[in-house]
Amino acid sequence: MSNIIHVKKESVINNLLRNKKKADFRILFHSIWSEDSQKIVKLANEWAEKSTEGDTPVHTVSSWDVPHGFVIFRVTKTPALVTCVKGKIRVMDYFPHMYDFFTGTR
Description:
With 106 residues, the chain is of the alpha/beta class. It is 38% helix and 25% strand. The chain has one domain (4-103): Glutaredoxin, CATH 3.40.30.10. It has helices spanning 10-18, 35-50, 67-72, 95-103, and strands at residues 4-7, 25-30, 58-62, 80-85, 88-92. A five-stranded mixed sheet has the order 1-3-2-4-5, with helices on both faces. A hairpin with a 2-residue loop joins β4 (80-85) and β5. α2 (35-50) packs parallel to α4. The protein is globular, with a radius of gyration of 13 Å.
């Protein structure tokens, strides 16, 4: 089961970046004012409850709590899913692809 970690400090994101070669992670950037963001956060929570993908955590970052976190990954719109696998970082900001990822339809 994947776990969801709500990030409130920029230092958590910096630690993830430092360890990107050692550990895989996912970061979901969202805004409290965006309806699409709220839909994706809800899907991510449901996905985490059903997931059997092991220990890959999903960190959720709100634009209100950690605005500088968006700059680190050059995220310009919400929602956006940043995936790091074996040190390679990929940013996904197209809503249908994120929906497919969290619902397992793809």
